[in-house]
Structure formats: C-alpha cells, structure tokens
Amino acid sequence: xxxxxxxxxxxxxxxxxxxxxxxxxxxxxxxxxxxxxxxxxxxxxxxxxxxxxxxxxxxxxxxxxxxxxxxxxxxxxxxxxxxxxxxxxxxxxxxxxxxxxxxxxxxxxxxxxxxxxxxxxxxxxxxxxxxxxxxxxxxxxxxxxxxxxxxxxxxxxxxxxxxxxxxxxxxxxxxxxxxxxxxxxxxxxxxxxxxxxxxxxxxxxxxxxxxxxxxxxxxxxxxxxxxxxxxxxxxxxxxxxxxxxxxxxxxxxxxxxxxxxxxxxxxxxxxxxxxxxxxxxxxxxxxxxxxxxxxxxxxxxxxxxxxxxxxxxxxxxxxxxxxxxxxxxxxxxxxxxxxxxxxxxxxxxxxxxxxxxxxxxxxxxxxxxxxxxxxxxxxxxxxxxxxxxxxxxxxxxxxxxxxxxxxxxxxxxxxxxxxxxxxxxxxxxxxxxxxxxxxxxxxxxxxxxxxxxxxxxxxxxxxxxxxxxxxxxxxxxxxxxxxxxxxxxxxxxxxxxxxxxxxxxxxxxxxxxxxxxxxxxxxxxxxxxxxxxxxxxxxxxxxxxxxxxxxxxxxxxxxxxxxxxxxxxxxxxxxx
Length: 576
Prior knowledge:
Layout: H1 50-83, H2 87-115, H3 117-136, H4 141-169, H5 172-203, H6 212-215, H7 217-231, H8 245-264, H9 272-299, H10 312-342, H11 347-353, H12 355-376, H13 378-402, H14 408-434, H15 442-467, H16 474-477, H17 504-536
Helix pairs in contact: 1-2, 1-4, 1-5, 1-7, 1-10, 2-3, 2-4, 2-8, 2-15, 3-4, 3-7, 5-11, 5-12, 8-9, 8-15, 10-14, 10-15, 10-17, 12-13, 12-14, 13-14, 13-17
Keywords: Antibiotic resistance, Membrane, Transmembrane, Transmembrane helix
GO biological process, one term: response to antibiotic
Membrane topology: Multi-pass membrane protein
C-alpha cells in the first residue's frame, strides 16, 4: 500500500480518472506545466477536481448540523403545543442533543483516526439522517427526546471527520482558502437557521406543522451518503490513540447526574434523589480524573490530556469556554420562550427579530480576528464581555420598561450590542486558549474546546428550570403545556387551559407578565456571569501567540500531509 494514497487503493488510471488528493503524480501533460504543483513536487495534479466535490459534501453536512440546532430553537413553542410537552421535556429536546454531542466528540474523532474518516463520516451522516426522520415522525415527547439524543450522538461521529477529511484531502497551501469557506458556512448557518425554521413552521407544509424542520434533512443526508461514497477519499491517522470508553462513560454519567435533576427537579418538586444525584456528580467526576491519570500511565491514550491543564492560559480559557457555554444555553432557550409564548409572537416574527443579532455576531467576529486582536490582544475579549453585558442590561431595562407591548424595534439596540459583544468573544477565544499549548497537544486541546463548549451549553439548558421557570408563579411554572398559544405560529392568544374561562386577554396578560419576569431574572443571571467571565479573562495571555497558526508553514508534516499538531478551526454555533 502506498503511504501517499489516503484511500489505500491503487492509483487510478491517468487517462480515465483524476488522481485523488495526496495520490501519486499523474503522468498527464498538464501535470508537468511550469509552475504547477506537480512540477514543483506538489502532492496533487491540478486536473484533480474530486477534492472540491468532497469538500462540498462535508461542508453541506456541517451546515446541516449547524442549522439543525437553530431551527429547533425557533420551533420549540410549536413542538410544545403539538406534543403537550412539559418544560422539562422542552429542555431535553435541546440539552439531550448537546450532551450526546459533547460526550461523543472526542471519541468520534478518535474512531475516525482508527477506522477511517470516510467510513465514520458515512456512518455518522447515515445515523444523523435516520435520527432526523425519527424526530420528524415523533408521536410523543419521549420519542422526540430519545431521537434528539441519537441525533446528537450521530453528529458526534460525523462532525469531527469534516475537518479531518479536509486535512487529508487538501494540501497545506489550499487549506487557508478552505477554512475561510468554513467560516462563511458557520456564519450562514447562524443567520439562516432561525429564518428557515420560522418559515418551515409558519408554512405548515402538508399540514405537518413543525416536523419539516427535521424532515428537510432527509434528502440532504441521502445525497450526502451517496455522493460521499463516491467522492470522499479514505484516510486514517498513522498513529491513532486507543479508545477510552470507560472515560466516556464516567464523564457522561457525571454530567447526567447533574443535568437531569436540574431539568426535572422543579417539575417533580425537587425530590431527595435529585439532590443526592447532584451532590454525587463531583465524586464521579473525580473518579474520571483519577481514571484518566491511570489511563495516561497505562497506554498514553486518555480521553482528556490532563497535562494541558498545567498551562494556565489553557485552564483559564477552558473555564471561560465552559462558563460562556452556560450563558448561551440559558439565553437562547429562554429568549425563544419569552418571545413566542410570553409575548405571543409567531415563529416568523421571532426569527426575524434574531437576524440583527446574528449579523452583529458575524461582523464583529470578522473584525476582531483580522484587525483588533493583533493590536489589542486580550482586551478585545474583555471588551466583548463588557459589551455583551451592557447589551443584556439594556435588554433587561427594555423588557421592564415596555412590558408586554415591547416591539422588535425596541429590542434592536440591545440585540446589536449583545451580538457585537459575542462576536468579539467567540472568534478569538479559541486562539487565546491554544496560544500557549505545546504543539504536540494542539489537536487534543482543540477537540477538548468543542467538547467543553457543548457541555456548558447542556448545563445552561439544565439551569433554565432554575433561573427562568423557577421565578414564575406555580400556576405557570409547574408546566407550560396548556399555556402556549393556540397556534404558536399565529401569534394568537393562548388557549384558556388553567386560566379564567372566556378571558383570553387576562390570561395573555398573566402569561406575558410571568414570562417577562422569568426572562428578566434570566437576563440578570446572564449579566452576572458575563461579569465573572470578564474577570476570568485576566488569566488569558495578554497577547496570544500565533505560533500554532503558522505551524503548517513551518513544516513538520505528518504522513497524512497535516502539520503535526496544527489546530483545526472550531465548528461552533451559539445556539447549541
């Protein structure tokens, strides 16, 4: 087997099939043109266009995953109304996905290194498509929650392979352009997700209501499976680490013992077993740390490289990432519930209200990385935290001042401030965390960043029952079923389940006040945590080093053609 052919197959015939990326040079007249990569000893022939088709396939899969999260957020009230879901189930529709995704990310990447990135990508996208079908045809909340957890687990197999396939498929001199395209995809997903979800919910295609937000993945996923088998080249890591399934079980158990009682606690009147479970969660986490130390001594392949936490900037950055994930998990869910159930807005109105926020995030993220961070370093992230906190406080004031008569235009200044602040944080934070990490551990550290972000999001979604529903009167907070609008997409007054018969206006006012109070309480918590994040950022390096970004240019490539330890850009979404 040629060490240069990532697919492990014999080279294709030069006159019939273009050479795969990284394959032997093709004896074609164009391959010897002066100045061409082949003439210069490059890894591929310029006539090979298969890699761009492969790129389109994996980028579409990444886009499908990103959009799926924001689509679900905007359709939550419609799902609640249709399936008569409790608020605990509503939290698990989002938190279950995030938890399964976080728990499987590192293991999914490692499985791809061992058994082949193409193979795991195809398994992941197939499972993701099937889970989407189960979500779309769910008859009960339990079926939907279970399908969402399966969907998150399949995404954990699919998503890590995306950038690994790019590394194995594209030479170093083309990756900058490719990663720029990924950045555009992330921004497009953030903007288009809420709008697409709102439109699909409002249109009520074939009388299916909210279900097309999941079923739309079916044709995309099927096309990805078929084309992926044809155009994606197989690749494996030459020295893949072993699996750490015990570590996965321990850390997932610790998180479940904390998050599940948080989501169900108020609904079940805070039973004793819930308190015991939450108190024991740190003990299981401690057992995880001890096992990871043992695993490191045994075969050097732990799930988490604990030595990374000796690097102060990394430890501080991971803490910031986790805490920021909590903030995002709380805000995006309560924001959706406040607009659509508290204010009675339709899905489209709520989705359009979020567009300025997403645009502000994208613009600020681009400016921060390209212009501000090179000049001001850590101060840019702290300015982002302060700006976002100011936007949250302005939003809190607006909700209190305008009450249930608040309009999207009156929310606009606060949302622009919050979006700009978030953009100043999310884009440069990964580089700040990785700046002092040893090069040989950069890949492990990069994967851990994504895992911690998703874990924080799941924890934040669990806390919604405390900071949002916990501040409501018992008549409302004990469950939102029966309190939602008669048609969440219509903006009509809610049905009078539990309210005074024949008094929809009075019930609407009661719901508006209750959800407004819960939203204000949540915003207060978010502002306080952002203040904590501002202080934690002092532990980040004042001026993040750029040595990791330039690692590829400096040589040291491995047998896959990747710069050793070079970090990959993070496929993240604020809504997850």
